[in-house]
Amino acid sequence: MKIGRGDVVSLVLAAAAVASVALVFLTRNEATTVELEERARNVLGTFREEEVELVVLSRRGSTFSIERRGEDSFVLHTPAEEPADLAAVERLIDGLGFAAVVRRLDKADPAALGLAAPRATVAVSMGGKRHQLALGNDAPSPPGAVYVSITADGEAPSFVVAGRDLSALLLTTLDELRDHALVKLGANDVRDLTLERPDAALRLTRGKGSAFSLEGGGRANRDVLESVFTALAELKASRFLPVHEAERVRGAAPRTRLKLKPKEAKAPEVVVELGGACPGAVGETLAIVRSDTARAGCVRDDALGPFSLSKDDLADDRPFSARADEVETLTLVRGSKRLVLARRGTAFTLSEPASAEVELEAGNLRLEAIVRAPGEMVHAPDLAKLGLVSGGDKVVLTVLTRDDKATEEILEIGRVEPDGTLPVRRTDDGAVLRIGRDAARAFLVDSTLLRNRRLLDFALSALVELELEKPERQLLRRAPSGFALVVPEGFQVDGELSTNAVLGLGSLTAVRWVADSDDGGFGLGAPRATARLRFEQGDAGVSERSVVVGAPAPGGYYARLGDDPGVFLLERAVVERLETCLVDRAATMIDPSSLARLTLRKGSVSFVLERRGGELAPAAGTKLDTELLAPLLEALPGLRAEAAVHTGKAEPSEGFSPPSLEVVLEPSAGPGKPRTLRFGAREVFRGLPSRFARLDGTNATFVVAEAKLRPLFDLF
Prior knowledge:
Shape: extended
Radius of gyration: 39 Å
Number of strands: 42
Structural class: alpha+beta
CATH topology of the largest domain: Dna Ligase, domain 1
CATH class of the largest domain: Alpha Beta
Strand content: 35-45%
Helix content: 10-25%
Largest sheet: 9 strands, antiparallel
Oligomer: single chain
Number of helices: 14
């Protein structure tokens, strides 16, 4: 076959490419030219952090070493072996690798430079070669510079001047490299925990999944026990002591001892001893941790609280130990009815009593209501009387543990009591609980998971009319420029409050559905609040709906929509909007620029401000601290009420006879008569410290936040 000139060129290029790839492969571990130029300025020259095997640090009188045990693991030899702080070791090694030479010394007298008897040395074993740095005296320049000698295997020492950063690295102390966390075992690593105190002893043994059992019977409360493991994880030494010294100082002081047996059979037991005042430190206790090695240090007293828990504190009164996000499948059996809910990615699948997709939040809320249902322990229960017989009603949870193993938790369900409470029995420890009436509803087989949580959906502009019955009747109608308050008569509507009320209804969403029908225990027979509304619904014309709000419940209020028998939970913020008086709150605001005279009176003490030169200033005979005047004038326009609490006459409890403060407003020349704004008794309005307020000519009582009134009361 004839080979042309073009073919020859192609073959040459291909061979060059292959040679180039081979060269890169063969030199992949060698420093590049750029790296070599950069490393030439470094104290240790070519340095690869990942190849560091051993670092030995010596200071006069002490030596310790750091040994690599894996890609991201180091141990300290002191000479006993103990864990090292990975981040601190990496900072040391990185610092040594990037430490730069300020200048090199061609001739040097080691004794004159302080290098015949150095202050500290660091030896680094890397890639089969050993490098040693020795720290001498301070150099005259630049500030903080030091003399350092560098010795590599088989080479004569060289002498340089290095910066203050290298000096700090060479003087690194043992405590700076120690792992200050004294206990590394977490809840998932332990199979047995014993807590011994002078007054008591507790032993806990791992059961199924994440649960622990108390010695003598009963399951430990997972949340409470977690505080113990959290305290162990946060048990950090503020400083270390030799173990023999800690034992001597502690003496016979009372102590708490924790024994932790790891799940891993070959792993050593960890014993934590706490007790005795730490020498020279107020608020700290001695801690000695013994395993395959022993360490001692000082820990904060405020970290020890969870270790004083009693057996009663740890007793679990919840039906399940699993958490909602750990549950893969829920099976609920009540008589011939079954409910089966399974987690599927970002949603749930309901297979019984009907087949349907269930949104993630709705499924999680149902699981949360079941697994976190509060209960009360029943002592010496009569299982037959409570209907707790094997093979009856039950809840079965399939739980996925952190090691991806599936376990089951089973709860037997008894006969509903006359007061609506529900007896249940945990099969893992035989404990019998009584679940309250409200919480027990989550254990019913119903269709609530099939219901849409979005209840109403209309735009603000679509509202025609809204009628609210409590705390008093209000009627809001759409007007050309927004809304008008028809009832009560004679009041302007508050634009923000009315808009919030309508928006809350326009996007009305249930927190969760609670029951298919009202069993008489939701407070809907004597409702807390009722809202009736008419709104335009496209081609369907005007729709009429009503919302009835009943009794409070954890997370909100029970409610019903129109004639639908289903009961849902409505969030508190929406109910507060429906219970708010929609009267304009601006009545209590004061515009200083409109006043000719302002009088503040508290009892027999008065302060009078008059307009002079376009400003309100203290009138003749009024002595007013000038530092209080500016905050007062700034506060007046911001005295908008939080809400009107009712219309009509003041109630005796509102504290206007006499008022706590009166503000007399005399307007400048023009229309308007003098009016008085009165502030009454203190009141906490929806968690906000406030005071009642009334204004002449406005037949309503308001509440104004005390924080807004502080500059007025500070005058007296």
